Amino acid sequence: MRLLEVSHGFGLLLPHQAFQLDAVGLPTSNIVPLRTLEELNANVSITNSILPTTQWPTTTILPDGTAGNHYVYAEFNSPIDIESVLNGSPGAVANSNLSGTITVQATDPVTQQTKSVRGRVFIDGYTYAGVPSGTPPLLEWQKWIDVDALGKPVALPVGGAVPGVGFPGTESIGSFPGSSKLISPNTLVFVRDEDGDLTTYETFPAGQQISIRITNGVRAVSGKALLDAGLAASTVGPDTINPEVAQSPPPLSIRCRTSSSSSPSRSSPSRSHRCPRRRRPPWALRSRCSSVRPRRPSPCPSSSSR
Known about the structure:
4-stranded antiparallel sheet
């Protein structure tokens, strides 16, 4: 199973992209995705950086310009095993019914405090909702969204109501590019929803680094595990925080001692200092890819099965 792309409708978050280099190493106007190390080496240079990821707009609008909730989706090359990514228990609602193999989080760039972002998750138009039943009690797996002949998302009646109104595209006049991808067994869609009502449009938290982490715990219906994990990140509006190396303050840091003595058993306390543990490189946490370039593209290698 492979991850094909992560997007919020306004541009790709994964895979990373760059201007294609020509035969003499000069950038062209053609933008190419970087899915393999070969594509990275062929198109990224000191003078041709990886392009920054696209941000969410600061207002509640969709890619077609109409009003709507912010969202993000992850598309795979195989149908998703629902139980590998979602938890139908009522207690999991506080975590958007995500099981933990996929997380959506907001990080304060100043304090580095991270918290989960609330939303509603869909796979092929289905979501966990309704009255819990069974032993142990689980929410119903309800079909809220479908697509019409033109690929436009349509909210369906459920139990005398239409709770899917507010899903991206359901209130648009027509479909928008990529809207048909949102209703597929291969796609997980996270719609921002703090209050449990999709008709009250919401943005992702402003002034935060929004990250979508996709781990190898994701499985396909066939039982195959996700081959390459991925981490997508962006912000609401311009990213004004410069990338920097993350450090762990004590007590998470370890004490390192250096010594001017020739004896390895003796060290000078006056030369001791705190050495932060090795952390994930800043490009993995920051969305400003124009300033810090990863050594390899985020793993979205190909559309072939493992």
